Amino acid sequence: MATRKKSSAKADDTLVDIVEVKEHAEDFFERYRYVILGVVGALVLVVGGFFAYTNFYKVPKQQEAVEQMYQAQIQFERDSFSQALTNPGGGYQGFLDIVENYKGTDAANLSLFYAGISYLNLGQYDAAIDYLKDYKPKGDVIPAMKFGALGDAYSEKGDFGQAMSFYKKAATTGVNEAVTPYYLKKIGLLHEHKSEWDQAKKAYQEIKDKYPNSPDGRDIDKYLIRVEAKQG
């Protein structure tokens, strides 16, 4: 019997707790009814607005931007970097105009990368750095490609500390059989440039050990032999 009384007491306590919680919840709602309904209404508007923005503005804007990019990409592939940036011909916009006129689209974001690489090839390294830093890696243009291009730009400027930093990011971000050994090799070459033979050997040895069948791994022995000779 004592056990039953204890259980009954617990049940009563639980019932009281639930009622109190419910009453407090109802009181809270009554006190802040208009605030809560206002927030819910705002969320509905945000969701509806986002849907409308995405389907009636962003998607058509992206499609238009992609169509505009076509000629600039052709000029880029032809190594006509100046034309790709500003005047690809045929009434189409260059990468710089696409960046400005189609902000928020994937095409504008990709144009940042194209513009950065174009400036890099034109020897305008500060401009290349500015555009590449703004690019947000997406799709096929992976982060390692952005970091590697930034490394190239800083290397051309003679800022080897920054170049090394970005090459290391390129080699360690999203390890890739093709990309990683390519940038490891650049790390090794930069160490060689600074007469840091042990560090150069370390980078080359990693290629040999982990990526022997990659394009850069197939001839890595000659780089190892070279730095080993310098070590001696």
What does this entry show, briefly?
The chain has 232 residues and is mainly α.
Residues in β-strands, percent: under 5%
The helix/strand series, from N terminus to C terminus, equals: HHHHHHHHHHH
- Unreliable stretches: 1-33, 43-53
For the CA atoms, what is the radius of gyration? Answer: 30 Å
Number of helices: 11
Helical content band: over 70%
The top level CATH class name of one domain: Mainly Alpha
Shape type: elongated
How would you classify the helix and strand content by structural class?
A: mainly alpha
Q: Gap between N and C termini, in Å?
A: 92 Å
Largest sheet: number of strands, sense, barrel closure: none
What is the number of beta strands? 0
CATH second-level architecture of one domain: Alpha Horseshoe
CATH topology tier name of one domain: Serine Threonine Protein Phosphatase 5, Tetratricopeptide repeat
What is the arithmetic mean of pLDDT? 80
Plain-language structure description:
With 232 residues, the protein is mainly α. The protein has eleven helices and no strands. It has helices at residues 2-31, 33-77, 81-86, 95-101, 106-121, 125-134, 143-157, 160-172, 179-193, 197-210, 220-231. Helix 2 (33-77) runs parallel beside helix 5 (106-121), helix 5 runs antiparallel to helix 6 and helix 7 runs antiparallel to helix 8 (160-172). The radius of gyration is 30 Å and the shape is elongated.
